[in-house]
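Annotated sample (chain length 204).
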Amino acid sequence: GGGLSYAGPRIDLGVSFTVAGEPTSAPEAQGGGFSGVGGRLGLGWEVGFTTRIGLLAEVGYHSLFAGAPAMTAPDGSSTELAYWADPVGSTLHMGYGWLAGAVRLGDLRVAAGPVYGVGVASTMGWADGSDDDGVSYTQRSVAHTQGLIRAGGAELGLFYGFLNMGSLQGGLGFHAGAMTDTGRWYPWGQLAFTLAPAAYRRDG
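Output written by the structure step:
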């Protein structure tokens, strides 16, 4: 007895669906809400203080790709938009860190804890201002928008292991979470293949 019950690498790789919500502040010079499918990869380390209770730390990459959003003017119209820029798709590229407590219930593990991400997003949005000739335009003008994201929140992960490979166990994982940069919310869900250290030793 004594020491850690288990320790080893943790990998979560799969497809995710992410929503970048509408901005909570005035929409001038900001992109509107968008959503799309992408990939999410997490690499980390998990340790067990007992066969049932552990801790994991993970860093990873989170992406989103979507087609050009349908633009509707603030008055509800979608035609005769001034200064229409060539439509481009929406993208999000983010690095993240996740620290979570893990509880093992047989082959099912539940992990939850804070997550923090830093990245960039690009989409179409409304803009006020003037052109090179000094002609003013309004929110009915459309432009490409890109911005830096620094967001924090929480993540919940479920993992069911059914492939025993020595000191590791593989299986299916489902993750869900949400982050906010105080300007908008970024909720997401992920279906993943997970590889985690096995916890075979009995307590006591």
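Annotation: The radius of gyration is 22 Å.
Annotation: The CA atoms of residues 2 and 59 lie 29 Å apart.
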